[in-house]
Amino acid sequence: MNIIVCIKQVPDVTEVSWDPETGSLIRKGIPSIINPNDKNAIEAALQLREMNGGEVTVISMGPSQVEEALREALGMGVDRAIQLTAKQFAGSDTWATAYTLGLAMKKIGQYDLIICGKEAIDGMTAQVGPQLAEYLGLPQLAYAMHIEVVDSKVRVKQKLGDLDRLLEAPMPALITVEREAYQPRVAPMDTILEAYGKEIPVWKPDDLNGEVENFGLTGSPTKLRKVYTPKLIKGKIEMLEGGPEDVARKFIGKLKEKYIL
Amino acid sequence: MASKIDISEYRGVWVFVEQTEGEPARVSLELLGKGRELADKLGVVLTAFLLGESVQDTAKELIFFGADEVIVADHPLLRDYRTELYTDIISEQAMARKPEVLIVGASPIGRDLAPRLSFRLNAGCTADCTGLDIDEESRLFVSTRPAFGGNVMATIICPEHRPQMSTVRPGVMALPEKDDSREGQIIDLELQLDEDACKVKILESVKGASEGVNIQDAERIVAIGMGAGDKETFDMIKELAELLDGEVGATRFAVEAGWVSHDRQIGQTGKTVRPELYVGCGISGAVQHTAGMSASKMIIAINKDPNAEVFKIADYGIVGDVRKVVPAIISELKNQMT
Ligand SMILES: Cc1cc2nc3c(=O)[nH]c(=O)nc-3n(C[C@H](O)[C@H](O)[C@H](O)COP(=O)(O)OP(=O)(O)OC[C@H]3O[C@@H](n4cnc5c(N)ncnc54)[C@H](O)[C@@H]3O)c2cc1C
Ligand SMILES: Cc1cc2nc3c(=O)[nH]c(=O)nc-3n(C[C@H](O)[C@H](O)[C@H](O)COP(=O)(O)OP(=O)(O)OC[C@H]3O[C@@H](n4cnc5c(N)ncnc54)[C@H](O)[C@@H]3O)c2cc1C
Hints:
The complex is a heterodimer of chains A (261) and B (338). Chain A has 261 residues and is an alpha/beta fold. Chain A has helices at residues 36-52, 66-76, 94-108, 128-136, 189-195, 216-219, 244-257; strands at 2-6, 9-11, 17-18, 25-26, 32-34, 55-61, 80-84, 113-117, 140-150, 153-160, 163-170, 173-177, 202-203, 223-228, 238-239. Chain A has one domain: 3-Layer(aba) Sandwich (Rossmann fold). Helix content of chain A is 30%, strand content 28%. In chain A, a hairpin with a 2-residue loop joins β10 (153-160) and β11 (163-170). Chain A is globular and about 70 Å long. With 338 residues, chain B is an alpha/beta fold. In chain B, the strands form four sheets. In chain B, strands 7-11-6-1-4-5-12 form a seven-stranded parallel beta sheet, with helices on both faces. Chain B is elongated and about 65 Å long. Classes of the chains: A alpha/beta (261), B alpha/beta (338). At the A-B interface, α3, α4, β9, β10 and β11 of A face α3, α4, β7, β9 and β10 of B. β11 (163-170) of chain A pairs antiparallel with β13 of chain B, so a sheet runs across the interface. One flavin-adenine dinucleotide (FAD) sits between chains B (149, 225-227, 251-254, 265-270, 282-284, 286, 288-289, 292, 302-305, 308, 321-323) and A (13-14, 121).
């Protein structure tokens, strides 16, 4: 069984800080990591390979440094990695991302499952998976908590809000994995070392059979008009001071003032 | 992608309506409220798109909540949400009827459906928006959404493609008033659907183990954070919430610590709430949390650290230990009630 996992390299947003004076984002020195949710996707693929045999390929589109993310995935034990890096790909929205990844899938040709994370921690749209499924005309099984192959069909336990569903689809199919599913393994030392010896092909627009005007910023139907930091200051705060009994009385006084009590 | 359409042919605002057993999702009603406003600005018709089984009565409700017309796809196979069928039916109608705006609730269903639909329609989609507007000069639909864990806000447009699509976070738009006297048109679609033609089968569907609370319905919320970090304090806070006739909300840390279930989490990866009263107990005020509650009408924060971020967005602040302040409030409340 051949599985392709899509991984995105993201800034570690838990490390993002902002300037308290200007309110603007400090991005300098923020480490890049594999989107945490995509490690769940890698883990799911590795477990499926252990059960069903086959190969796992990871693919990532991004600037040249995504090579690090791909190496890390190889370290976790995937068989091969493909990198999509070209200046034409820059500025892709989810449509253009799905289009470019889709072209790469067509070039790879042979696959039974494509696995994505549910969402990336930076853009956080959760749109790339479903859009890629649509482009390739594949059944889409989102929010997977568990994946299983039964009689050459794939079964997914889906967490759809407060519904738990069991879905079944023929392969090839596209799955997005939930954040709580498939705790990623720690990469073993020997595979990490092996990972550094592996060749990672870099595909550019010429390697993909696509239309140039569909790539990157030009190909993106959504256009970013403005980015700004939300205002943190709501207004003047009034502090309720005193011992616990005093503040309790003042607290209730405020609720009464506003007719909440 | 290059756009090959004449955008002037596209008119009207559509709202996808999600339903369970005929009951419309709250977010869909919120979007009818917002959709009404957008349609009025554009001077066009507001259309609700409803799919389900035996949903004729629901369709009428949608008119009471602001729709001018309701397109209804009523079929046993549409009772449960299915990506394929829902996408096929809506996209076919959208290609024929050409709406300029299509909005969908950013619920798990909406986030599964909208991107697939947008790709089929050769349109972009702005995700998880917290603000929608019309630029009256250009007629463009302008969406605002948080990104990078709520640290930045982005304003996004889709100038060349139609429909202009967005998903909208539940709880952000106000619920519209229901007006039983409103009238409108119901358009029933003729459907030929066949289970055998569907690739994805639903083998099972059960209600998951959640407490079934929707904190978005609560007008008073007492929220707990790591600073309220033990069982005893948590029980006190629950009592305070009950005395105030409210619900308990939480930060992600408190959810991860296992004190409350995820459906009570407020913020970027939880719910957006706008109650008349929000009391934060031992909450630092990280932007990922405040993104989900800053529109509350009255915010009171209790934190032992006078420099906590949360005080920047609160109306009233109490610097103190929740373990002392909360019991004092409880006993004072009880005093005043008797
Ligand atoms: C501030 C801001 C706001 C934005 N808002 C929007 C918007 O509303 N609509 C829109 O269409 N675009 C938007 N974008 C662009 C969007 O973030 C990028 O297209 C991004 O490359 C993919 O979207 P995402 O991060 O939301 O990924 P998601 O759709 O959340 O990712 C889901 C999964 O898809 C896979 N995946 C995603 N990207 C890649 C990749 N590059 N390589 C391999 N696999 C990948 C991973 O498995 C990932 O877990 C925005 C960008 C910014 C900076
Ligand atoms: C991508 C992403 C998404 C996220 N989504 C969410 C989300 O949806 N919702 C969310 O809430 N968080 C979210 N987070 C996490 C968020 O960044 C914060 O880490 C979290 O909100 C902090 O929770 P807290 O305030 O409970 O804990 P802390 O930040 O640890 O704050 C505890 C506070 O309690 C105070 N305190 C301690 N003891 C006492 C006492 N005895 N009495 C009074 N005060 C006391 C301390 O001074 C401190 O201010 C997200 C993070 C990321 C990266």
